[in-house]
Amino acid sequence: MVKGARETHDPEPVWDKEIAVAEKWIQFVDNAVTKKLPRGTKILSISPHGASYWTRTAEIVTQQKDESKASFFLKVTEQDTGKGMVSGEFLSMSTLYEAIPAIVPRPIAWGTYEADSDVHFFLCEFVTMTDDIPDVKQLGEALAELHLENISPNGKYGFSVPTYQGTIPQRVDWQNTWEQFFYNLMERILSIEWQSQGPDEEMKELTDAMLTKVIPRLLRPLETGGRKIQPRLLHGDIWDGNTSQSIDTDMPVIYDATCLYAHNEMEMAPWRPIRHRMGKPYVKAYTRCFPISPPEEDFDDRNNLYCMRFNICCSALYPGNLRFRRLVMEDMQYLVDKYKGGYEEWARKRGEL
């Protein structure tokens, strides 16, 4: 991270609350889950696996009809929000699996527990992974392939159902331009963050300038003056908590998807914060395979803008912790100061207005 807000390598804790989902829901395999497993499956065990602030996760070990052992991954949520989370994840993972199965665990089902209609689940194959982040070159090549070969089926930006960042639904209604779609994304998450963390006059002023000046300045040039981008299928949340390396295939694995058809460069947003283990080497590996969109000179500031949405979401998810809001406001101030003239000033200087 060269410009904008700085972070420490030893961030303060962001969450110290109990997981909202009761542990009892992963102490047995509900009938609704069992019905989605292959016919003849015998349950051998279920045990907690992985970590999440919003869900309970477990490994189900089974014996199959041919007496071989097979494991499955189970994620459990509660209430209407949880239902939206797992249904959106299932469609996201199904779409990704169809596009690039070599790096995506095979999704099996989502549904509702028979034991309690307020409890919902996502089920997929279990992949044994390392404790490390994925190979830089392999992941860069795989994501470039995903983006290059999977364009929005209707030519618009969006997704067919709401997908969730943590417990927050993204606004994904279809739009013809990337500028309008991203404006909608930002306006929604800023409103949610405001409700979560409370009002702040400086934040409001910066937000207004971001929406009216910075977003048009950085995103409109992508689709004007003879320049063009296309809405491409994104995982939507690739950071070191949602990707690893498969022990069995020695290939990257991506999971916990929150898909949308968007500008491909937004996939790199979570690689900007220095609190994450994935950083500039992944950007370099990816852009060797999928070139930067023109105007190339705006790339770093676009990345800052896309990362800002990621950090605003983090702020909204952790009410009472203002660390992410402070980071966002510093980055907002940098971009607002730099682009006070908005798109019009830039286009006028280039003879595009």
What does this structure look like?
The protein has helices spanning 31-34, 79-99, 136-149, 178-197, 201-219, 280-289, 299-317, 323-338, 342-349; strands at 42-48, 56-63, 69-78, 107-112, 119-125, 164-165, 168-169, 232-234, 243-245, 252-254, 260-262. Helix 5 (201-219) runs parallel beside helix 9 and helix 7 packs antiparallel against helix 8 (323-338). 40% of the residues are buried. It has 353 residues and is an alpha+beta fold. The longest helix is centred in the N-terminal third of the chain and has 21 residues, at 79-99.
Write the layout of secondary structure elements.
Elements: H1 31-34, E1 42-48, E2 56-63, E3 69-78, H2 79-99, E4 107-112, E5 119-125, H3 136-149, E6 164-165, E7 168-169, H4 178-197, H5 201-219, E8 232-234, E9 243-245, E10 252-254, E11 260-262, H6 280-289, H7 299-317, H8 323-338, H9 342-349
Helix pairs in contact: 3-6, 4-5, 4-7, 5-8, 5-9, 7-8
